[in-house]
Specification:
Two copies of one chain form a homodimer. The first copy, chain A, is α/β, with parallel strands linked by helices. Chain A has a single domain, classed as Rossmann fold, CATH 3.40.50.880. Chain A is 36% helix and 18% strand. Chain A is built from eight helices and eleven strands. In chain A, strands 5-2-1-6-7-11-10 form a seven-stranded mixed β-sheet, with helices on both faces. The first copy, chain A, has a two-stranded antiparallel ribbon with strand order 3-4. In chain A, strand 3 and strand 4 form a beta hairpin. In chain A, helix 1 packs parallel to helix 6 and helix 6 packs antiparallel against helix 7. Chain A is globular and about 45 Å long. At the A-B interface, helix 1, strand 2, strand 4, helix 6 and helix 7 of A face helix 1, strand 2, strand 4, helix 6 and helix 7 of B. Chains A, B: InterPro entries: Class_I_gatase-like, DJ-1/PfpI, INH-QAR.
């Protein structure tokens, strides 16, 4: 089973590495890191990841994972990821996104009229791009699974492991990564965080249209 | 403020990328990725990360983050990380670990008689290495902060942001990464996972002495 983890400049690493850690250790999988060129990709806080294959070289994958970015409109404008998704999504078993990676799925036409989730600050933008936006943390619609912001990739991928390999395998994976979360604050959603922090975060993350 | 994210072969990427995503976007920080050599480092499920500096070149850091590995005994036997920690820990403001990264702190003498946590499956081994082992998800003792297995790095780093920059900044960060966890199963700790999965995971992860 071939896993394609998509890389692009200024992506948010945790969006990708959560699902990678959950999916990448399953038996019989091969993890590919696919980008526009073979050059190392620099993420938005400086991490440098080396691709293993390019968009031109990889024609198919069983599972595709598309991460988001704090400057997601640049990836949207660039178009390279969306163009590749148009090529590989029709034959993929699962096409997934985390955070604003959903906007790239939408740009490829994959979310037209389809239920999907995204980072809480860009819900309006994803709706403008054609999706039926949900506030759920993980949304599955047929072969497409979307996760909310950044850390939601872990929940998204555990859900996917359960769908593919069953509950026992998903629970074993959760136990292996000791995913028994204990956030030291209760500020992980716009419903629970202080209002002024929500306003500030929205202004930084939501893009030009909101 | 200089952040040193430690890299070594077959490390577990999420151990490092959780804290990286939480700490790396704070104002005034510079993220360094430090390894034994400048060569790209391959993680335990195939992700390739490029170091920005070597152990020889980096003499100090304000915050050090040491990830773990599913084959943690190899890093312990290699000795390179522990040797570097002996050099830089005395002048670091914060020395931290996630998962079995704690065993490397212990090997450097940093955890002698000190409260610390680690992946649930290696608690006995960490005690043998001299730490006073806690089952807490995050343990702070003076300048040393340790996190439990893999995903606990997110909780560890949010705790650290609160200690350094205050509660508002930590909550803002939590909101930015939408860390409102909703695991699809309740199997993230040995207390809640099915017993046979705990036994299997322990046999794979605990190392040769248990």
């Amino acid at each position: 089973m071939d896993l394609a983890f998509v890389l692009y400049p200024k992506m948010t690493a945790l969006d990708l590495i959560g699902p990678y850690e959950v999916l990448g250790h399953q038996e019989g999988v091969t993890a590919h890191f696919v980008a526009a060129t073979p050059d190392p990709v620099t993420c938005d806080a400086g991490l440098v990841i080396t691709p293993t294959v390019t968009f031109d070289e990889l024609d198919r994958a069983d599972i595709i994972v598309v991460p988001g970015s704090g400057v997601w409109e640049a990836a949207l404008a660039d178009g390279a990821v969306a163009a590749w998704l148009r090529k590989v999504h029709p034959t993929a078993t699962w096409t997934t996104s985390v955070c604003t990676g959903s906007t790239l799925l939408a740009a490829a036409g994959i979310l037209d009229g389809r239920p999907a989730t995204t980072h809480w600050a860009v819900r309006d933008r994803l709706a403008e791009l054609g999706a039926v936006v949900s506030t759920d943390r993980v949304v599955r619609d047929g072969s497409v699974v979307t996760g909310a912001g950044v850390s939601a990739g872990i929940d998204m991928a555990l859900t996917l492991v359960g769908l593919i390999w069953g509950d026992d395998r998903a629970m074993f994976t959760q136990l292996g990564i000791e995913y028994d979360p204990r956030p030291p604050y209760d500020a992980g959603s716009p419903e629970t965080a202080p209002g002024e922090l929500v306003t500030l975060a929205r202004s930084l993350l939501s893009g030009s249209a909101t």
